């Protein structure tokens, strides 16, 4: 028979663990962004269980690959999240849904351990994270003490319970992120949508008035896009839009934000930049596309764009809608002037294809 004091001690210990689990769950359950989730989760587990090294591995292929960009950018998460091949994870946990403890020959786990910890840690607990029964990552806790996660002596029941709770919370946070992504992005190009443009401009216009700093908007439109669709097909049209969007993102980069406005029309906004600076960006995009046709099947599809901009300092608009209207009118006068004077490469190419 168990000693009564031992039983009481066990009950107390389990209650303490349950409270810690509750505290971790409370902190992560309602988080809406994956980067905050990983940051809070790893810190909270470190604090509650006094674990020196805690990180998360996520599979670098679907279904969570859309999170890579945001998570990799965050310097706060550099040693707290790793993107790893699914195969490397399976090699370690095999087909098990249970936590694996390793305190011998950790080099077999190198791929799932952040490089800064590899020479420091001597034992690690690796718990699978799943969403809808599918493996999406690993939750890892490690110590320089080789006995802490010792497969020969330690039970993994509590670690498994913790991983189940984390998996449920991870499923919530990714669902929330996906909803936000769908609500704010254009599904074809991944650029922010028109509603986001209006929200951003409304905010930035007020700020530019208050701070007396410039705000520039540039419309970009693909020339002869309907003819590309009609001649080479809708799929080719889609690839042209994606190609332009990619360039737009690259050139606008840290200077502002890029949006898909409608059909073949894009907009970029550069807070704090002058009209001339913004038009230089548009010209660079134009020049790149002009000299780098899109490869589509066996064709090199030439792409030319027209653009028109407006800025708060140059044009003194009354509100952000007025600013957009001026830029849109400039785009169309630019397009009409070019249509009359220069038959574009695009039409020559499409005529040959017909
Ligand atoms: N492939 C594809 N086509 C689209 C998409 N959205 C809109 N479109 C088509 O884009 C075309 C836009 O036509 P227009 O505005 O006349 O464009 P355009 O031929 O470039 O004419 P200009 O601007 O005067 O040079 C229409 O035929 C739409 O059906 C899309 O997501 N994918």
UniProtKB/TrEMBL annotation:
PROSITE patterns listed in its UniProt record: GGDEF (PS50887)
Enzyme class: transferase
Reaction(s) the record says it catalyses: 2 GTP = 3',3'-c-di-GMP + 2 diphosphate
Biological processes, Gene Ontology terms: cell adhesion involved in single-species biofilm formation; negative regulation of bacterial-type flagellum-dependent cell motility
Keyword line: Nucleotidyltransferase, Transferase
Record flagged with keyword Nucleotidyltransferase: yes
InterPro entries registered for this protein in UniProt: Diguanylate_Cyclase, GAF-like_dom_sf, GGDEF_dom, Nucleotide_cyclase, Rev_trsase/Diguanyl_cyclase
GO CC entries: plasma membrane
Gene3D superfamilies (UniProt xref): 3.30.450.40, 3.30.70.270
Cofactor names: Mg(2+)
Ranges of residues in domain GGDEF: 213-347
Source superkingdom: Bacteria
Keyword Nucleotidyltransferase: yes
EC annotation from Swiss-Prot or TrEMBL: 2.7.7.65
GO MF annotation, one: diguanylate cyclase activity
PANTHER family: DIGUANYLATE CYCLASE DGCM-RELATED, REGULATORY COMPONENTS OF SENSORY TRANSDUCTION SYSTEM
Name of the protein this chain belongs to: diguanylate cyclase
Organism: Marinomonas spartinae
């Amino acid at each position: 028979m168990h000693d009564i004091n031992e039983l009481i001690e066990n009950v107390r210990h389990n209650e303490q663990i349950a409270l810690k689990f509750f505290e971790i769950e409370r902190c992560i359950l309602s988080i809406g962004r994956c980067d905050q989730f990983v940051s809070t989760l790893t810190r909270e587990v470190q604090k509650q269980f006094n674990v020196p090294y805690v990180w998360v591995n996520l599979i670098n292929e679907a279904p969570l690959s859309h999170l890579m960009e945001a998570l990799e950018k965050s310097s706060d998460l550099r040693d707290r999240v790793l993107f790893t091949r699914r195969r490397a994870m399976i090699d370690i946990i095999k087909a098990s849904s249970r936590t694996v403890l390793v305190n011998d020959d950790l080099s077999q786990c190198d791929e799932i351990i952040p490089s800064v910890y590899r020479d420091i840690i001597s034992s690690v607990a690796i718990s699978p994270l799943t969403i809808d029964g599918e493996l999406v990552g690993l939750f890892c806790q490690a110590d320089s003490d080789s006995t802490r996660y010792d497969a020969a002596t330690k039970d993994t029941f509590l670690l498994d319970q913790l991983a189940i709770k984390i998996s449920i919370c991870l499923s919530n946070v990714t669902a929330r992120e996906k909803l936000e992504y769908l609500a704010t992005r254009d599904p074809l190009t991944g650029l922010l949508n028109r509603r986001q443009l209006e929200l951003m401009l409304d905010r930035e216009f007020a700020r530019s008035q208050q701070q007396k700093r410039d705000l520039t908007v540039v419309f970009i439109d693909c020339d002869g896009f309907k003819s590309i669709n009609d001649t080479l097909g809708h799929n080719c049209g889609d690839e042209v839009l994606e190609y332009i969007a990619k360039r737009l993102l690259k050139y606008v980069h840290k200077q502002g934000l890029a949006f898909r406005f409608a059909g073949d029309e894009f907009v970029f906004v550069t807070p704090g930049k002058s009209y001339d600076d913004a038009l230089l960006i548009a010209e660079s995009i134009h020049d790149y596309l002009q000299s780098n046709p899109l490869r589509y099947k066996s064709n090199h599809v030439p792409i030319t764009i027209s653009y028109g901009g407006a800025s708060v300092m140059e044009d003194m608009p009354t509100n952000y809608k007025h600013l957009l209207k001026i830029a849109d009118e400039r785009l169309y006068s630019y397009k009409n002037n070019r249509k009359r004077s220069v038959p574009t490469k695009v039409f020559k190419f499409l005529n040959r294809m017909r």
